[in-house]
Amino acid sequence: MGVISPIETLFLKSQHRLLQPRDYSYPVVSHKTQRVANFPHRSFSFLSLGSSSVDFPLRSDLILQNGRLSFPWRRYVSESESAEVYNEKVSIMEVLKKANSFIPHVILSSTILALLYPPSFTWFKPRYFVPGLGFMMFAVGINSNERDFLEALKRPDAIFAGYIGQYLIKPLLGYMFGLIAVSLFKLPTPIGAGIMLVSCVSGAQLSNYTTFLTDPSLAPLSIVMTSISTATAALVTPMLSLLLIGKKLPVDVAGMVSSILQVVVTPIAAGLLLNRLFPRLSNAIKPFLPALTLIDMACCIGAPLALNIDSILSPFGATILLLVITFHLLAFVAGYFLTGLFFSKAPDVKALQRTLSYETGMQSSLLALALATKFFQDPLVGVPPAISTVVMSLMGVSLVTIWKNRKE
């Protein structure tokens, strides 16, 4: 129809730097009853992409045609509009990187959903827990380096303190609460045995990830602590169970070693190697890991709750829930304040307190549940470990939220 379209040539330099295009002018042209106005030159630039500026003809302004306003098919995009598109892309990446800030919302949502509609998580079977926790450890490994673990090994006093928290403080609390359950609350003896059993097992791998979220520099120290407690559980757990419960439980040594390799060693080694050998690929993956681990965490928290909903809703459920919450709470508190007492002169005492609090308060309740199912005839023994799996996870991740907010 005679309308002159703007030239749409855009010269781009490598790595997103913009070249200055030639100056194109758009004259006023008359064609019968149609008049096309001269296009204004509007400059546009991305400071983050380079110092060059470029005219960017993409859309059109209103033009008078036969006494009426019409919309030619393109006009210039203003600087603010173009920057808005760019910033939108940047903001998406920032949201992915900061996905961990949504942890409290994910905890609450997965808990409510698992309680109201258990089938939403029952598909996440116990066999998926190992790869689920392994993925969290991979996220820790890819954000660490070998020097971090070498530095962790230079703190034997902290490692020993974590071991004492796991196999001395926690068993004493477990024995005390087991007696309270039977003598004070008049619960069946197997319930008390189940609480004691929870206190006899090794540390939870989830404590490594919670430490990473709160104090990334101490995540390797947490991993070393948990690995040592898990490796020695084959000897310590049967002895503690015999001492506290009166029943010696044989623990699968090969299974323990396999668990450490699958959940801790292999994923962390894979993350470290990827970071060293393929840094570009590692940097490309890192922004997406917080969001993916958040989904993974939702499944690891919601699934035990959904799978053990019958135990939680049992006649003794409310009382056991109260005892288990208090048991874990005192363990978290003991780990925190005893660390502050014995390591008061450490330069990173607050971070160390948080790390040892996680180590003392979080036990491998899934291992306790497996032992209860395999070696005890009474199914009530498995109720406290089942409830502990949920309570421990929720309390640990809730502490992440509290401590991260205080640090910020």
From TrEMBL:
Keyword Nucleus: no
Family, per entry: Belongs to the bile acid:sodium symporter (BASS) (TC 2.A.28) family.
Keyword annotations: Chloroplast, Membrane, Plastid, Transit peptide, Transmembrane, Transmembrane helix, Transport
A GO CC annotation given for this chain: membrane
One Pfam family named in its UniProt record: SBF
Domain of life: Eukaryota
Signal peptide: none
Location in the cell: Membrane; Plastid, Chloroplast envelope
Transmembrane domains' residue ranges: 99-117, 167-185, 191-209, 221-245, 257-275, 287-307, 319-344, 382-403
Protein name: Uncharacterized protein
InterPro entries: BilAc:Na_symport/Acr3, Bilac:Na_transpt, Na+/solute_symporter_sf
